[in-house]
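Narrative of accomplishments. A recurring question from our advisory board has been how the design workflow behaves on a single, concrete structure rather than in aggregate. To address it, we present the structure tokens for one chain from the evaluation set, followed by the sequence designed for it. No filtering or post-editing was applied between the two.
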């Protein structure tokens, strides 16, 4: 993802965040923190950089002013679509190459590796 994102002057994480928020509604900063297993401070810095690049906007949530809703800017929408297409193509390639059993095993092994190295994992919903 980093190699693909580099051509747009972005990081793989930024492209992944664009995909994540661009394909959902009412994404809160805490949703990004959970999805990408990053600390609040890391998410804040990343999103601030993305705001400076006119990729995202953050607005107070109408339900909780302490929370920020994050959206893709209209200028970044083409990048978000490219990111989503790239991720879909990569997932299709994985699906073609590995059986669902193999994919489950790889996922399980990666989760264990992360946990063994002091990280925490969560099950992705997509």
């Amino acid at each position: 993802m980093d190699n693909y994102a580099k051509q747009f002057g972005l990081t793989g994480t930024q492209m992944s965040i664009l995909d994540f928020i661009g394909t959902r509604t009412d994404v809160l900063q805490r949703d990004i923190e959970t999805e990408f297993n990053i600390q609040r401070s890391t998410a804040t810095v990343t999103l601030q950089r993305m705001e400076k690049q006119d990729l995202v906007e953050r607005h107070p949530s109408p339900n909780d002013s302490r929370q920020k809703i994050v959206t893709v800017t209209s200028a970044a929408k083409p990048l978000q679509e490219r990111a989503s297409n790239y991720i879909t193509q990569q997932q299709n390639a994985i699906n073609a190459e590995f059986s669902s059993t193999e994919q489950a095993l790889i996922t399980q092994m990666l989760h264990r590796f992360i946990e063994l190295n002091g990280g925490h994992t969560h099950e992705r919903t997509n």
